[in-house]
Amino acid sequence: MPRKPKRNTKGKIISAAWRLFYEQGYEDTTIEDILEASETSKGTFYHYFEGKDALLGTLSVLFDEKYEQLIPTIREDDNALDVLAYLNRELFAMIDSSVSLDLLARLLSTQLTTRGEKHLLDRNRVYFRLLRDVIARGQSRGELRTDLSVNEIMKAYALMERGLMYDWCLCSGEYSLSRYSADVMRMFLQTYAAQSNKGPLSECTSE
Fold first, then answer.
1. Angstrom distance (rounded) from CA 147 to CA 109
2. DSSP readout, 73-133?
3. Is residue 112 packed enough to be buried (19+ CB in 10 Å), middle (13-18) or exposed (0-12)?
């Protein structure tokens, strides 16, 4: 029980920081701005982060918070393909509306060059745990092909998402990430559908 408030405090700092980065830019956002927006003290901030630059590695935390918000909206009887399309659509809509292109590009580039922890590939993330559950359930119900393992499908899905984000950054965000990926991801997911489950994916999942 004592761990929960700490995680929430850290999450508040991260959420406030990324909101400010998007609204006023990374360079123009000060630690004081983040403290005010997150209603935390300087001592608390430095308990979790060495400085503002350390927040650049927390975008995966922000993504996972989004997934935690989405989990209750997924119904047990939702088709796995629809759920995977839904998760992608909702995350990329969040990126379109609240994550700056510059910072996403910076995160992706640092993940390529870092010798330390690669946050996006951390298999303990909420993201990967959620994908495993959705894919395993889809296979058990005959919605997803079973000639590939859960991990193989999960790895391909995550790779596709990273590729879409990278291409969006490479193209300087000249198109809507969420709208473009909605079409591409649906075509991609059909390759993992069981033969009995081939067909168009639903436009909406879980209302």
1. 34
2. G--TTS-HHHHHHHHHHHHHHHHHHHS-HHHHHHHHHHHHH-SS--GGG-TTSHHHHHHHH
3. exposed
Report all structural domains of the chain as residue ranges with CATH numbers, in order of start: 1-49 (1.10.10.60), 56-197 (1.10.357.10)
Q: Which residues are paired to 144 by β-bridges? A: 193
Residue 1's pLDDT is what? 32
Would you say residue 71 has pLDDT above 90?
yes
For residue range 23-52, list pLDDT tens digits in order. Answer: 888 888 999 999 999 999 999 999 988 888
Q: Give the up-direction half-sphere exposure of residue 113: CA atoms within 13 A in the CB hemisphere.
A: 6
